[in-house]
Every structure is written in structure tokens, then in C-alpha cells.
Amino acid sequence: MKTTYNFNAGPCILPREALQAGIEALQDFSQTGMSVIEVSHRSKEWEAVMNECRALWKELLHIPDNYEVLFLGGGASLQFCMVPMNLMEKKAAYLETGVWAKKAIKEAKVFGEVITVASSAESTFNHIPRKYIIPSDADYFHITTNNTIYGTEIKTDMDSPVPLVADMSSDIMSRPVDVSKYILIYGGAQKNVGPAGVTFVIIRKDILGKVSRHIPSMLNYQTHIDGDSMFNTPPVFPVYIMTQTLKWLKKLGGVEAINKINTEKADMLYAEIDRNPLFKGTVAKEDRSVMNVCFVMSAGYESLEAEFMEFAKSRGMAGIKGHRSVGGFRASIYNACPKENVQALINCMQEFEKLHK
Q1: Residues 175, 180, 182, 186, CA torsion sign
Q2: What is the CA radius of gyration of the chain?
Q3: CA 213 vs CA 9, 112, 162: distances in Å
């Protein structure tokens, strides 16, 4: 089998044992004689998976009892409208730190007044804004904690004078989170916790039922709380792989353990970018993402970009091309990306440097 070092931004690299469990469940799920994609979602075998998955989320993130964990469809993009539809009565505040934050703001404007408290758009989103005022009369304040395209990250849980909402699509389960500081956390699974097709929502139950608008059943969080995330047929296979991924994470030592590993991986790669004269980082050092490492060729070496891309591919690097809107390179080093992959990329960069000294 070809050796490939997977740095794709999403769908993400997954633990081998989670994939193997999925292969086995596709053939025979829980000794039912049926595939996991054939079995009834109302069966006791499937309900056991949903319950286990929910329990793992609560255990790994130490989620308080007054929160519910939902598994929905539609990706984080659907949450861009579900959040304001369910939570905004008149006004909401947003921090604009990248493309996905910008898209969330666009959807929220359909439902009421949106205040963008700060933006780093003018500097191509190369830092996290810090000096801003959150309006005290906002129904909630929305942040995007990790920006996959530009490589910035909010690494701590902030204190907000109004209820706090976060899109944590690409850094959930990568570090400890004080869930009690948020009223709602959401994200697509396909960065850190599973394959594409399932969206997680962690929601404090007492925040619902406070808007005056009618909310269609499928877009109402309360519907899915009441239905244990099975108001309609859930995305069974993505949820199954998510469960296996969280079991892998728990066995590894949980969020606290993976946070140390992730930090070590990021430090290794950023150290090489800073050392190697051919490359340079693209964002403020204090805001560098631990999940998505973005870099470009240094001044004077720009003409080597295409050559390095082909060189890296020849060495088994997959998915390091930067987002089409920014170019350059991006190595996504999510939870399941082993240190060996990062070291292989570093070796590749050093080998390329020797060719161009």
C-alpha cells in the first residue's frame, strides 16, 4: 500500500482503528447479521450507539447536566441559520475572523440586526482582533474559534457579557473547553471527530423558547432534543464512526492528553517554518492555529511554489495545498494526524531546502 501522509483540511484523517471498526460494522453490525447502514435506527442496537456517543461527548468535554448534545445533518453551514433562528430576537453580535465567520454573519442578518464587533478582513484575516466592545443588549455573541483557511485560532474560553455561541468545527476535542461559558457550541464532524455527514450541537437547554418567530420543526433545536436526535433518520454511519473515534480518544487519555500531542506537533512544524529560509508563516505568531498550519514561500523564493508542491506530492504529502482563495500551503494536523506525518513533512521541507541553497 502506498505511503501517504494525510494533511487534508476536511474530510479529515481518522484513527485507523475507527475506520477498521466501521469496515466491520458495514459487514455485520453488533451481530445483527445486517450492515450498520441497513439496520433500523429504532432498534435497540442502534439506540445503544447513540447513547454511547452522547455519553462520550459529555465525558470527554465534561459537559454539565443542563446541556444536551445533538447529532444533526446539514453541516455547520445549516447552523449559520439555525442559531439566529432559535436564539436571536432582535440583535446579535459577531466576531469576523475568516470566511466561515463571514458566512455566519450573512445568514444571521436574515433574522435581525447583526453587529460585527471587529474584523481582521483588511489584513487578510492574519490575526484575531482583540480590542472590541460587545453590545450588552445583544441576544448572543458568536465566534469561530479556529479558522481553517487562514490558520488562526482562539485558544482560550473567553468571558462574554452576553451569551456566547461558538463554531468549533475544526478544533473541537483538540483541547479542553469550559462548556459552561457557552450557551451553544456547534460544528461539522469532519475535522476532528468523524466523517462528513453529521453535525454536533452542544446546547444549554434553558436558552430555547425565547424568540417570538415561528420555527419550522426540523430547524427547531427543541424538536431534536425531544427526539433524542432521531426526530428523523439520523446519519447512522457518520455517527457510528464518530463513536469509534471518541472511543479512540478516550483510550488515548482524552482531550487533555491529545491537547499535549497536538501542541507538540504544531510546535515542531512552526519551528521548521521559522527556521527554514524558503518558507514563512502567514499569521501573527500569537494567533497561530494548532490545527491548520498555513505558510507560503519566503520573499525571493515565490517562484518555487509549484515546484515544492510537486516535490511534496512525490514524497507522499497529501492535502497541503492552501485554500484556493489564499494559495500557499496548509497542513491540517488534526487529532488523528500522527507525529510521524508531521516529521515527514518537516523532512520534506529540509530536503527541498538543500536542493535550493
Answers
A1: positive
A2: 21
A3: 37, 11, 21
CA–CA dist 215, 221 (Å, integer): 9
Active site residues: 100, 167, 191
Nearest-angstrom CA–CA distance, 162 and 146? 21
- For residues 106 and 147, state if they share a domain: yes
CB contact set of 354 (below 8 Å; sequence gap of 6+): none
Give residue-wise pLDDT tens across range 257-316: 999 999 999 999 999 999 999 999 999 999 999 999 999 999 999 999 999 999 999 999
Whether 151 contacts 327, CB under 8 Å? no
Cβ-based neighbours of 336, under 8 Å, separated by 6 or more: 12, 13, 14, 15, 18, 192, 245, 248
Say if 184 falls within a structural domain. Answer: yes
pTM for the model: 0.97
Range of the domain at 92: 16-252
Q: What's the domain count of the chain? A: 2
Q: Are 162 and 136 a contacting pair, CB within 8 Å?
A: yes
Same domain membership, residue 287 and residue 183: no
Asked whether the beta carbons of 135 and 95 are under 8 A apart, the reply is no
| Domain annotation covers residue 4 | no
Of 74, 43, 100, 65, which is closest to residue 201 (Cα–Cα)? Answer: 74
